Structure to design on (249 residues):
């Protein structure tokens, strides 16, 4: 099943998730591995994170094994639309450009952008007016909504691109940069990981609001339904809470 009238695979150049999962019993999960507490790939290549555990639970429910497919924030959408994975997880924000080319599940988290600063600087970089001044160095990981936010909202501050989102917070901690603007769940986690050094500025009242969801290749509404049913259940039956506990306490 799943073939288009021309015989070419439906959905993406690599067929649909449903067809692939039925044929291979494998769930291929794209993730960047650089966004704790949601997705993390350590130096030895071991994956962890709330969304990684969630994807593993989905795979189990599908009778499939999970294979992680490393991606980056700049290439995630192309990897999904090309069908290089069946699902992308790990803090993916619902955006119009992504929704135009692929399909989001129901959202599982509300979030928003907030500064992460040296605790010694708490209160200095709280508002965008305080941040958007000459000489203020704002570090940003490329390719995602963090970059989009700072490039849209800051004109006077110096935007410092930094490629490795697993070590980017070190640049704030040791003074190479002044702050990062990122999702509150990340700001809170990084601040908790380095108490008295890194502080989340106002994570309960972020600059904007966004929703996190999982992203599915286009053209497989049956798979979207399956994942939505699983996700809706997982949010209420304790599956999400169990995945979150080791990270969020
Ligand atoms: O692109 C998105 O949707 C994200 O929310 C991912 C994003 C980003 O905005 O760059 C968010 C926080 C992490 O620091 C890494 C990536």
């Amino acid at each position: 099943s799943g073939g288009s009238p021309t015989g070419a695979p439906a959905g993406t150049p690599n067929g649909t998730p449903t067809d692939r999962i039925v044929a291979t019993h494998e769930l291929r999960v794209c993730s960047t591995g650089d966004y704790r507490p949601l997705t993390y790939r350590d130096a030895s290549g071991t994956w962890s994170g709330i969304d990684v555990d969630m994807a593993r639970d989905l795979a189990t429910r599908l009778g499939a094994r999970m294979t992680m497919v490393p991606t980056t924030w700049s290439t995630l959408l192309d990897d999904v639309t090309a069908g290089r994975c069946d699902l992308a997880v790990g803090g993916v924000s619902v955006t119009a450009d992504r929704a135009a080319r692929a399909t989001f599940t129901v959202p599982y988290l509300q979030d928003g952008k907030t500064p992460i600063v040296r605790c010694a600087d708490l209160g200095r970089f709280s508002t965008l007016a305080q941040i958007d001044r000459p000489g203020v160095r704002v570090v940003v990981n490329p390719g995602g909504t963090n970059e989009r936010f700072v490039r849209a909202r800051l004109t006077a501050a110096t935007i410092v691109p930094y490629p490795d989102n697993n070590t980017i917070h070190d640049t704030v901690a040791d003074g190479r940069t002044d702050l990062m603007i990122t999702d509150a769940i990340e700001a809170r986690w990084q601040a908790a990981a380095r108490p008295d050094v890194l502080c989340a500025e106002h994570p309960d009242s972020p600059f904007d609001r966004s929703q996190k969801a999982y992203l599915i290749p286009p053209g497989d509404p049956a798979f979207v339904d399956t994942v939505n049913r699983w996700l809706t259940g997982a949010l209420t039956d304790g599956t999400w809470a169990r995945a979150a506990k080791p990270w969020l306490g």
